[in-house]
Design a protein that fits this description.
The structure holds two protein chains of two kinds. Chain A is of the alpha/beta class. Chain A is 29% helix and 22% strand. Chain A is built from 26 helices and 38 strands. A five-stranded parallel beta sheet of chain A has the order 3-2-1-7-19, with helices on one face. In chain A, strands 9-16-10-11-12 form a five-stranded parallel beta sheet, covered by helices on one side. In chain B, strand 2 and strand 3 form a beta hairpin. Chain B is globular and about 35 Å long. Chain B starts with a strand and ends with a strand. Classes of the chains: A alpha/beta, B mainly beta. Chains A and B meet through helix 15, helix 16 and helix 17 of A and strand 1, strand 2, strand 5 and strand 6 of B.
Chain lengths: 830, 106
């Protein structure tokens, strides 16, 4: 018989419970009803401060419950629990019987009783709506110059809030009552460094003090601190901790803790055996946990219990790793050495700006915890070792690189704490062959898909398992594509035979030849069919057209930005009609003409080139199209001229050869009609300029592009795209699209941003120069063929009977157009 | 034997297609080692007459052409498909006389 689970609240933990239960409940024992007072479904509150980057609430979305067994009622509140009859009632009048009830009501921000705390311009920091409110205050601020704000609370969330304010162009003052920043996670030494690092980023830190009053002064807010300092402010944000939402439980007689929180046992069950509480509203062993990871653990426990399991709360992993304002901070295990006799080992490098501490047991044999500030790269390795023997000398764990022992994790150590994945589970999917790379491990185990901090560890485990992460291009080269690119670039080698002679072996194959041809083309070595290069190209590049299943080709002329005159449209129509070509509009705002034979291609292109068309490179691993919406010229919502920019970009990068195809789009406003976030590089107009997104694609594994720069002017935008594309071309693997290239990069998008925005490698001028060379040397490939009799001669059906059509090709008519007659494919046993 | 073209018409490690008197098609290749090979032009996996347009190279030292449609490799000397040894393409005898390539029936 089907039973009914009612969940009150749809935050991250409520969402996780639904997911966990539905995954485990294979026989559909439970139907799930969720009642949530918020107007939007659960979203990634942990990443809230990133909302400031693009003001796109969708980018925080969690996967929707696409499931008939789950009903989600938003904007409704449970106001009554009848525990005897097991029924809840809501403000919308819903009467919902339950077999089990789960309270996942979360928490509310704690606002200290400061006089003036209710003034306009004072906000809390928890929801998307809170951030919208802060933004409205900031936009209405009349003061000229840089705005100032105050964040009350210097904990993890307070610094996140300060980061968000900074993203809105506000100089934040952070006021912390305790003696240091992040008192829960970081010790004095670490906090000292953290303060020094964030103060460089325009934050002013006031510790050991609090706000004694907030007053209105005209359009401004004046905050008086207890140490006598007065701050002149545009906005105030309270971030001084949370209080569990336990009022429903109190009203209906469930036991609550002395300092709040619904008391639950190790099964997360409240004082009523049919009612559970999970997440920030629950009080377990006298603790209320304000982190998402323990909430997720509770959700997993309840899912198991509902299905008859015996799971118990495994204890909270309070480990934290985050990048606050670009500064790495990590804290794990017994970070403050509270255990009796615990010993601390500290390496504090004020010059390098790093602080590291490990806490070990009194006999220095067991790792208990630690703190890392400035560089948290050792976190994925150290955190799983908590409670386990210290391998060797503790100081070597955090000492300078190179001197330390080679650390290996025990098999039952948890590698991914977001999804509770152990080393053993990862090793299993690797050894069974289910996963051969990091994306594979992510798909099989979910490890690395939460905060992502364990991804470097996943790579290490792959190599520990002997999965040779060989980047050799093929059996003829031991080098990766990126290595070969550098060899070709630095040595000036311009032919495949020289490259394979000096750096490879054998004759080459269908993997290395086109890859090297692409490298040579990216380095501007003339026409892709010039000299020896012609033999390297696969059939599409060899005939500058796309091969189809019957051996004919399709033709795609370039239509920059998707803008075309009626005259040119008529030429395409006439050519298609005269050669009997099947015509279809592509997804990239151009026109594809199918069914051309090899000897027809030059005749078709002679007419297209005459009419002013150029190759569209639909056949190449190259820039395809830059799609656009109509933008300000016509659209009443547009804020920038998207068509002009799309044309400019398409003309700039046309003919650019790359490791894989490249697609782009420009949208004239946030409505995003051009679908720019589905592209390798997408541009979306803002009122102040352009936002640049990178690493998106459609295809087998669709991915949204991520924001890398916002509100830049056109000149800056083009500079950034120049650098992005050239860095990709130089360093990506063969057939690696921009999304996987970024994903496989150590440091991911942050690293890419530091390279192409902040020029951390000092190569931007070089990348720009390389792109400038490409732009200067561009020439239309099809015109190049038509003007060269030697290249033209290759476009023949039969060497001994030029002009004779291939007898195996024939067409039939479908909906008024030619389509291929399917070839009699001989039986092939596979 | 049918004369199909001059040896100089071929580019090393690339093929051309030729039509034989019986209407069948042959793919003729010149390798970078200087040898000439002729295989049936029809790719048995797609049914399209395209093998002459494949990339010529080697797999483990064995000279091959790779079909441009679904990328199976065929041994130039035997016509055998290395990805599926149960299938293959016909091998035509080929001679070069006075710089002219002549192809016979398989």
């Amino acid at each position: 018989m089907t039973r009914t689970l009612v969940i009150v609240g749809h935050g991250m933990v409520g969402h996780r419970l639904v997911e966990a239960l539905r995954e485990k409940d294979v026989t559909d024992q439970w139907r799930v009803g969720v009642v949530a007072e918020e107007t939007r479904p659960a979203y990634d509150r942990v990443a809230l401060s990133s909302y400031v980057d693009n003001w796109d609430a969708n980018s925080l979305s969690l996967a929707p419950h696409d499931d008939d067994a789950v009903e989600l009622h938003l904007n409704d509140q449970v106001v009554h629990i009848d525990r005897d009859d097991k029924v809840v009632r809501t403000t919308a009048g819903r009467v919902q019987p339950y077999d089990a009830l789960v309270l996942a009501t979360g928490s509310i921000p704690f606002v200290p009783p400061v006089p003036g705390r209710d003034l306009p311009g004072c906000h809390v920091y928890r929801t998307i709506e809170d951030l919208d409110g802060i933004r409205a205050t900031v936009e209405a601020a009349h003061s000229s110059g840089r705005h100032a704000g105050m964040v009350l609370g210097g904990g993890l969330l307070g610094l996140e809030a300060a980061n968000a304010l900074r993203g809105m162009g506000i100089s934040p003052h952070v006021v912390e009552l305790g003696p240091r920043l992040m008192p829960l996670q970081v010790d004095e030494g670490g906090a000292g460094l953290l303060k020094r690092l964030v103060e460089k980023l325009d934050l002013t830190i006031h510790t050991g003090t609090s706000a004694s009053s907030i007053e209105k002064d005209g359009d401004r807010l004046i905050a008086k601190l207890s140490n006598g300092v007065e701050l002149d402010l545009d906005v105030v944000v309270f971030s001084a901790g949370i209080r569990p939402r336990d009022e429903l439980a109190r009203s209906f007689g469930l036991k609550v803790g002395e300092r709040g929180g619904i008391v639950v046992d190790q099964a997360c069950r409240t004082s009523d055996e049919n009612i559970y509480a999970i997440g920030e509203c629950a009080n377990l062993d006298g603790m209320v946990y304000g982190l998402v990871a323990p909430g997720y653990s509770m959700a997993e426990v309840v899912a198991d219990r509902l299905l008859g399991g015996e799971a118990e709360f495994p204890g909270a992993d309070m480990s934290t790793k985050l990048k606050l304002l670009g500064v790495d901070v990590a804290s794990f295990g017994d970070a403050h050495a509270k255990e009796e006799g615990a010993l601390e080992v500290v390496v504090n490098d004020a010059v390098a700006g790093t602080y590291a501490k490990v806490v070990v047991s009194d006999d220095a044999k067991t790792l208990l915890g630690g703190i890392l500030v400035g560089d948290a790269s050792k976190y994925p390795l150290l955190r799983p070792l908590v409670g386990r023997p210290v391998p060797g000398d503790p100081v070597a764990l955090i000492g300078p690189a190179g001197g330390g022992p080679e650390l290996t994790l025990p098999h039952d150590a948890q590698v991914c704490s977001c999804h509770a994945v152990t080393k053993q589970q990862i090793v299993d999917v690797v050894n069974s062959g289910e996963a051969v790379d990091v994306p594979g491990i992510k798909a099989c185990t979910k490890a690395g898909t939460g905060c992502g901090s364990c991804v470097p560890m996943l790579k290490k485990l792959l190599s520990e398992c002997g999965v040779e992460q060989s980047r050799a291009l093929c059996e003829h080269f031991d080098h990766s594509r990126a290595d070969l690119f550098e060899i070709a670039r630095s040595t000036g080698v311009t032919t495949f035979s020289e490259l394979i002679g000096k750096h490879g072996r054998g004759r080459g194959c269908d993997l290395c030849k086109p890859a090297v041809a692409s490298i040579l083309a990216s380095l501007d070595n003339g026409h892709v069919l010039g000299g020896e290069q012609a033999a390297l190209q696969d059939t599409n590049d060899h005939f500058l057209a796309n091969i189809q299943r019957n051996g004919t080709y399709s033709v795609v002329p370039r239509i920059p930005g998707g803008e075309i005159t009626p005259e040119k449209l008529i030429v395409i129509g006439e050519v298609a009609r005269d050669f009997g070509l099947y015509t279809k509009i592509t997804g990239g705002q151009r026109i594809d003409l199918f069914g051309a034979t090899v000897d027809q291609l030059p005749q078709i292109w002679a007419r297209l080139v005459d009419a002013g068309f150029e190759s569209g490179h639909a056949y190449g691993k190259a820039l395809r199209t830059v799609k656009s919406c109509v933008g300000t010229t016509w659209c009443r919502f547009g804020v920038q001229d998207s068509v002009s920019l799309a044309i400019e970009l398409e003309l700039r990068y046309r003919g650019l050869r790359s490791p894989h195809k490249l697609k782009s789009a420009v949208s004239g406003c946030a409505r995003e009609c051009a679908e720019a976030r589905g592209k390798d590089f997408g541009v979306i107009a803002t009122e102040n300029g352009w936002n640049l997104y990178v690493g998106g694609n459609g295809g087998f594994t669709p991915r949204h592009a991520e924001l890398i720069a916002s509100d830049v002017d056109t000149e800056t935008l083009i500079k950034l795209i120049d650098r992005f594309l050239m860095f990709y071309i130089r360093t990506a693997d063969r057939l690696q699209r921009t999304s996987t290239w970024i994903e496989s990069m150590e440091g991911g998008l942050d690293h890419l941003r530091s390279v192409i925005v902040d020029d951390s490698l000092g190569i931007c001028a070089d990348l720009e120069a390389a792109m400038a060379k490409h732009v200067d040397n561009y020439a239309d490939e099809w015109r190049g063929v038509l003007e060269d009799p030697e290249k033209l001669a290759r476009f023949t059906s039969f060497v001994n009977a030029p002009g004779t059509p291939d007898p195996t090709i024939s067409f039939r008519e479908e909906r008024g157009q030619n389509v291929p007659v399917l070839l009699g494919v001989p039986e092939v046993s596979r | 034997m049918t004369p199909v073209c001059e040896l100089s018409a071929l580019q090393p490690d690339r093929g051309v297609a030729a039509l034989l008197p019986d209407g069948s098609q042959v793919a003729v290749f010149l390798t970078s080692a200087g040898t000439v090979h002729a295989l049936g032009n029809i790719d048995p996996f797609s049914g399209a007459a395209v093998l002459s347009r494949g990339i010529v190279g080697d797999r483990g030292g064995v000279p091959v052409v790779v079909s441009p449609v679904y990328k199976q490799a065929f041994e130039l000397t035997t016509g055998k498909c290395l990805d599926d040894p149960s299938t293959g393409v016909p091998v035509h005898p080929v001679v070069v006389t006075d710089g002219v390539i002549q192809v016979g029936s398989p």
